[in-house]
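Student: I would love a firmer grasp of how sequence relates to backbone shape in proteins. Thank you; the sequence and its tokens follow:
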Amino acid sequence: MPVRSPDTLRIIDLRIVTEIDAKIREIPYGTGSRFTPDKGCLTGTRTAFLDFIVNWVNDPASERCLVLLGQAGTGKSSIAHEIARRFHKIHRLTSSFIFLRKEQSKPYHVFTTLARDLSDRYPSFKTALGRVVKDNSSLRVGTRDYDTLFQSLILEPLKDLHIVGPILVVIDALDESGDATGRKGLHKFLAKNLIRLPSNFRVLITSRPEDGIESALVGAQSVKIKHMKDSELAAKTHDDILAFLWERLPSDGFRDYRDDLAIKAEGLFQWAAVASEFILDPPGRFGYSKKKCINHLLKPSTKRDGQDPFVTISDTFHLLFSHDSLLYMCRTPMTRSDSDS
């Protein structure tokens, strides 16, 4: 039997590696699902939340999963993007997945994207994953079953590997996944199966506190729950919103209104963001100036049914976008379906 030269062996090895890469690239990747650096927190804000999460990631005794629950507009997604940005900057973010309802994110892509990201980051994982998928077209591009994907694309390649340090995964807006209801949704699967990951995995999940999601995750093994209204972590939310408004409305002309606007926001960063946009870009076709926009935001409304006449967040604004992208706000109560849409 002829002896192959070192050059021939290197060519064969390169061919094998190329074939494995090609097979792994067939595994679906969540296009547009990666975090966005510009959507992180304003410098100096949300420090209590961010410090808590960083400590959770770095503590070897931490739970595998931290779930941050909060209503729409409370800033949980900004925190998720900021954590992803910070750890990416120091080359310690393994994967991120941002669910976007308007993009019709596919929930099973959480697992396929994580497998692809792990293979990009850890050569030993790529080799192990390649062995699993190279002769299995159905596994690469066919199945959407959570258990099959989790077991075959993640747990099996990890089985004999020893990766030092935390493996951080950020999943934002689980409630937007399109499969966060019912008895067999993605939320149920994660609650039951995250404990099967190696103990150095750290999975940060943000979500609205939907009944099904919260009840599935509360009490799950190796899962910690924190709420955006946490009395300790959220103690400086008003100050953070005020800092945001100073950043967005820096002109001296807004000096006398920032405090009132921050109070009006009632802890909702999204309200502050939309309000500042409304002020800076008044809907001219309604005859609104910047000053009139501010007055519209802050003035009392008509008293109804014995309620406090001052317009609070619970008696807030519909957000209506016209075809020419001008933002119009009208003072009527915002229902849950309004905020969801």
